[in-house]
Amino acid sequence: MGWVGFVCLFTITMLCGGIGVSGIGVNWGTQASHPLPPETVVRLLRENGFQRVKLFDADYGTLKALGKSGIEVMVGIPNDMLATVGGSMKAAEKWVAKNVSEHITSNNVNIRYVAVGNEPFLETYNGSYLGITFPALRNIQSALVKAGLGSQVKVTVPLNADVYSSSSTYPSGGDFRTDIHDIMLTIVNFLSVSGAPFTVNIYPFISLYSDPNFPVEYAFFDGNASPINDGGTLYYNMFDANLDTLAHALQKNGFGNLPIIVGEIGWPTDGDRNANIEYARRFNQGFMSHISSGRGTPMRPGPIDAYLFSLIDEDAKSIAPGNFERHWGVFTFDGQPKYPLNLGTTNSGALIPAKDVKYLEKKWCVMKPSARLDDPQVELSVSYACGLADCTALGYGTSCGNLDARGNISYAFNSYFQKNNQLEVACKFPNLSMITKTDPTPSVGNCKFPIIIQPYYESTGWRFGCGQEPLGLVSVLILILLRVL
Predict the structure, then answer these.
(1) From residue 239, how far is each of 123, 308, 416 by CA, in Å?
(2) d(Cα 472, Cα 419) in Å, to the nearest integer?
(3) Which of 45-59, 354-368, 379-393 has the lowest mean pLDDT?
(4) Is 75 helix (H, G, I), strand (E, B) or coil?
(5) In angstroms, rounded to a whole number, what is the distance separating the alpha carbons of residues 117 and 84?
(6) Buried b (16+ CB within 10 A) or exposed e, 173-203
């Protein structure tokens, strides 16, 4: 997706004319207030049989941890760096030297792809990256060749499925969007000449989220949906139809044999009425079964190279697309499996949790029993807490949607308290909050009041995650103002 995250990859590829399983991998997103230490995540990957990992940047600590693991790596160049590497060959060469060559030679990292940007042509970006994506792609490819890595490391551009559509609503009518048709053909031709794949992100969940009339069963792989008949070709699920719309677009423009990687596909577990554990389990297990069969799609029969999105929840992601954005992980923020999922890589057929995760003390910040719901400070305090923490599990159809008013307030307070490493000042909402050692998690349902993990820092064992710093002076002053208002 255009929203950064970590993608679990199941890949079956053609090997020397035969079919072979080249491994399961995962996209490692780090937009979290308290990310797990890189070494913990690498161990999680290995113990669950993930053989590939896709990153959205080229963080040194992450790549170093992947050294000698044997895990195949795709490093990423964020969209905000496209202008830099696209505008200067020297900048592109410097980026490759620092983030690819050095890690391959010094840290023995198995880097195989460079993802240039992430969904840069997403319609919501209003063309911001249209003029700089191809120059960046071209310069990075040239830098790889100059570094002697042109055959070992391939470039690609992960694109959203909105770069193509169908004029007939059927896959056979597929073609690239008219407003980007020329630039798409330039990129596709460059990928073809470079021996690189076309990478696309496909999300049936988003179709269901954005269209209340979307047929729910068509999002899944159970065969329960009424098929779409495209001139005698039947499509029983959205994934096959969407992928073949791209295949038709490529074929129509003379690139019918260009390899396709499904860069992201998955289902979130919270933040929306259709984002729940049962739907996520059903979709992801169905997808794994579908792809492991090796049948492919009508237009692309055989093995499919695809990344399941995603590995771990990220509580600092933007929720502009929807509250579900922070809940795509197969694992929770602390590396615990959310639901049964058989990837076919472990002896037990189950996901293996992260080991040796270190948590903060078992204490929570909740609403005082004596506090009144009609206190005028309640609304201000909850708004402040949720604005700086994560309240996406609250609301209609969510995991904590059945909490009463006091429960909702307590959840907001605790989220802020945990994100700020349980500092006492982070539970000083005026005459409203208190610290307790009694777990407020409801006894029934999926709602949880989490205890945050210890912050990790590379050099000393402590590191603040994305957007996470010790409670600042401004935050302290706002809490004091709330108390005196």
Answers:
(1) 21, 12, 38
(2) 13
(3) 45-59
(4) strand
(5) 12
(6) ebbbeeebeebbeebbebbbebebbbbbbbb
How confident is the model over 308-323, as a mean pLDDT? 95
Give tens-digit pLDDT for 144-163: 999 999 999 999 999 999 99
Which of the pair, 208 or 306, is modelled with greater confidence?
Answer: 208
Tell me the C-alpha distance between 156 and 136, whole Å: 11
CA-CA-CA-CA torsion sign (292, 295, 301, 302):
positive
Closest to 403 in 3D by CA, of 364, 453, 441: 441
* Residues 425, 430, 436, 438, CA torsion sign: negative
The total of other beta-carbon atoms located within 10 Å of residue 252's CB is 15
Query: Taking CA 332 as the corner, what is the angle to CA 267 and CA 364, rounded to the nearest 5 degrees?
Result: 130
Residue 173 phi/psi, 5-degree rounding, is -90, 10
3-state secondary structure of 364: strand
Band (pLDDT 50/70/90 cuts) for residue 466 is low
Catalytic residues: 119, 264
How far apart (Å, rounded) are the C-alpha atoms in residues 76 and 56?
4
> Which residues neighbour 473 within 8 Å (Cβ) at sequence distance 6 or greater?
none
User: What is the distance between the alpha carbons of residues 174 and 243, in angstroms, rounded to a whole number?
Assistant: 10
SS3 326: helix
Task: Return the SS3 of 377.
Answer: helix
Which H or E element spans position 65?
helix 60-66
- Do residues 398 and 431 make contact, with C-beta atoms less than 8 angstroms apart? no
**Cβ proximity of 222 and 286 under 8 Å:** yes
Report the mean per-residue pLDDT for the chain.
90
Asked if residue 118 lies in contact with residue 112, where contact means CB atoms within 8 angstroms, the answer is: no
The confidence score (pLDDT) of residue 14 equals 35
Neighbours of 243 (CB within 10 A): 26
What count of other Cβ atoms lies within 10 Å of the Cβ of residue 484? 6
Adjacent-strand bridge partners of 433: 367
Around Cβ 390, how many Cβ atoms within 10 Å?
28
For residue 444, is pLDDT > 60?
Answer: yes
> How would you classify the pairing of strands 18-28 and 364-367?
unpaired
- pLDDT bracket for residue 122 (50, 70, 90): very high
Tell me the C-alpha distance between 396 and 394, whole Å: 7
- Nearest to residue 48, comparing CAs of 337, 356, 332, 359? 337
The Cα–Cα gap between 444 and 430 comes to: 30
- Residue 174, phi then psi, degrees to nearest 5: -65, 140
Helix axes 377-388, 405-419, angle to 10 degrees: 40
pLDDT for the residue 380: 97
Indicate the residue type of 315. Answer: D
Hey, what amino acid is at 351?
Answer: L
DSSP helix/strand/coil, 175: strand
Tokens of 51: 């053989």
